[in-house]
């Protein structure tokens, strides 16, 4: 085993090489013809270099040997090697420094080289987001990372412990204990969807993003197969600009649409579609799983032709799984709220409607109307605790006695639907909540190129 000093020296050299590589790439990206919409290498490269400096500094100041398997040390070895490999690929595509005989194809929109550069920019975007999530401010917190979906968090901690990264082969065997997948093309497709950074490993961050995109947990891989593997509208590693270009061929066919994982709001979907007047719009829907948005869009005549094709896949079978989690309220909690001249069920923001949605991962409860209004103000933090809102799920509240009776009456249906109910920890009693923004916020400024409209319903 390497000594602590030898380990730190080797890691320090790896950090230095990575930062120098990013600086060289930044110089190569200065040609104005390489300006791209988000994600932009010209923005990502210096940000990643700065974050690496912060991580390196925090590592130097930390004492002790490297962490155990799958900890910060192992993650950084994998990360820095992957960064160097992807950086070399970018360097091969970009014009050499100080030379004018560059490959003109990389400047042409829609060319094969431009497409390769856009995909690498997406990978760099994912890598920056991953490093920021596991090393906020440069300090490692991967062992404390809270996955957004509680079932996914339980799975990771029970099977992977405090590790933040696993080799793909080990991860797939663990996942198959809960969600079986046949080896072969389907398994390879799953790997390409999960491995956002294309490193051959799966991090707790990547698994978090995957489980947010293809929720709910009981039918996770079924959702993935119907929405990603079998759906002609699904596009992997596509940018905002590329969606605009792809839908140009469908401008005479309103109702054409494609969807992709958002690169600016990881864990959420971005849908591009052709409106009735032939314009191309892109939106990030909130407050609903993707299949519900697509079904409603189909009913409303908005999402009819995936990638311009006539056949629109039937997603109604995904609606068969009950999505509501149950919140159990004990007699003691009921008495506590009665003493406050309130009820547990009542939303504490509007004091008009009952709570029916749980914010993730903090767990605070409110009504869906207040959540939609709150998020329409562009606020992405919980109105109670100000933690980031990464997701939400529909809930129904019942008293402990009611739940016991109802559970016995519906046990057989529950088994038939393969739906497992769970009682979540109750939110802390909050005597007052911060006010919501006005119901009718001021008109938004015109959308610039590269910005998406965030909507609560479609």
From TrEMBL:
Keywords recorded for this protein, A-Z: Calcium, Metal-binding, Phosphoprotein, SH3-binding, Transferase, Ubl conjugation, Ubl conjugation pathway, Zinc, Zinc-finger
Record pathway: Protein modification; protein ubiquitination
The protein's Enzyme Commission number: 2.3.2.27
UniProt biased composition (Pro residues): 431-440
Domain Cbl-PTB: 4-317
Annotated segments matching region Disordered: 428-458
The UniProt record lists the keyword Zinc-finger: yes
Enzyme class: transferase
Record SUPFAM superfamilies: EF-hand (SSF47473), N-terminal domain of cbl (N-cbl) (SSF47668), RING/U-box (SSF57850), SH2 domain (SSF55550)
Any one Gene Ontology molecular-function term assigned to this protein's record: SH3 domain binding
PROSITE patterns: CBL_PTB, ZF_RING_1, ZF_RING_2
One GO term (biological process): cell surface receptor signaling pathway
Matches recorded under Pfam families: Cbl_N (PF02262), Cbl_N2 (PF02761), Cbl_N3 (PF02762), zf-C3HC4_3 (PF13920)
Catalytic activity: S-ubiquitinyl-[E2 ubiquitin-conjugating enzyme]-L-cysteine + [acceptor protein]-L-lysine = [E2 ubiquitin-conjugating enzyme]-L-cysteine + N(6)-ubiquitinyl-[acceptor protein]-L-lysine
GO CC annotation terms, alphabetical: membrane raft; plasma membrane
Domain RING-type positions: 347-386
Zinc found in the keyword field: yes
Annotated function: E3 ubiquitin-protein ligase which accepts ubiquitin from specific E2 ubiquitin-conjugating enzymes, and transfers it to substrates, generally promoting their degradation by the proteasome.
Domain note: The N-terminus is composed of the phosphotyrosine binding (PTB) domain, a short linker region and the RING-type zinc finger. The PTB domain, which is also called TKB (tyrosine kinase binding) domain, is composed of three different subdomains: a four-helix bundle (4H), a calcium-binding EF hand and a divergent SH2 domain.
UniProt protein name: E3 ubiquitin-protein ligase CBL
Organism of origin: Myodes glareolus (Bank vole)
Lineage of the organism: Eukaryota, Metazoa, Chordata, Craniata, Vertebrata
């Amino acid at each position: 085993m390497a000594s602590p000093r030898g380990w730190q020296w080797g890691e320090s050299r790896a950090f230095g090489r990575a930062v120098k590589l990013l600086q060289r790439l930044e110089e190569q990206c200065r040609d104005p013809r390489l300006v791209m919409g988000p994600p932009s290498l010209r923005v990502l490269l210096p940000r990643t270099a700065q974050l690496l400096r912060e991580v390196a500094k925090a590592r130097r100041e930390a004492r002790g040997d490297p962490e155990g398997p799958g900890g910060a040390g192992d993650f950084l070895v994998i990360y820095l090697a992957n960064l160097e490999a992807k950086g070399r690929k970018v360097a091969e595509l970009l014009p050499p420094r100080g030379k004018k005989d560059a490959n003109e194809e990389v400047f042409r929109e829609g060319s094969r080289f431009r497409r390769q550069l856009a995909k690498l920019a997406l990978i760099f975007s994912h890598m920056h987001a991953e490093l920021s999530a596991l090393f906020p401010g440069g300090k490692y917190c991967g062992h404390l990372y809270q996955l957004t979906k509680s079932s996914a968090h339980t799975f990771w901690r029970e099977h992977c412990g405090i590790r933040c990264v696993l080799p793909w082969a080990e991860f797939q065997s663990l996942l198959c204990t809960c969600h079986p997948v046949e080896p072969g093309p389907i398994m390879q497709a799953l790997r390409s969807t999960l491995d956002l950074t294309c490193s051959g490993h799966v991090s707790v961050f990547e698994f978090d993003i995957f489980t947010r995109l293809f929720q709910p947990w009981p039918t996770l891989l079924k959702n993935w197969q119907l929405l990603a593997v079998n759906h002609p509208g699904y596009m992997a590693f596509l940018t905002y600009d590329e969606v605009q270009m792809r839908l140009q061929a469908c401008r005479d066919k309103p109702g054409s649409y494609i969807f992709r994982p958002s690169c600016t709001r990881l864990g959420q979907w971005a849908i591009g579609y052709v409106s009735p007047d032939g314009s191309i719009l892109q939106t990030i829907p909130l407050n609903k799983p993707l299949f519900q948005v697509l079904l409603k869009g189909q009913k409303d005549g908005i999402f009819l032709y995936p990638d311009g094709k006539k056949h629109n896949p039937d997603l109604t079978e995904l609606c068969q799984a009950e999505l509501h989690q149950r919140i159990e309220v004990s007699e003691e909690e009921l008495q506590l709220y009665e003493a406050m001249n309130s009820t547990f069920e009542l939303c504490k923001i509007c004091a008009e409607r009952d709570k029916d949605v749980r914010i993730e991962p903090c767990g605070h409860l409110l009504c869906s109307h207040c959540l939609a209004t709150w998020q329409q103000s562009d606020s992405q933090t919980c109105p109670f605790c100000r933690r980031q809102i990464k997701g939400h799920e529909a809930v129904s509240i019942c008293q402990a006695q009611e739940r016991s009776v109802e559970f016995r009456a519906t046990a057989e249906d529950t088994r038939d639907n393969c739906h497992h109910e769970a009682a979540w920890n109750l939110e802390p009693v909050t005597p007052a909540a911060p006010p919501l923004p006005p119901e009718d916020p001021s008109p938004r400024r015109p959308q610039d190129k590269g910005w998406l409209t965030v909507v609560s319903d479609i």
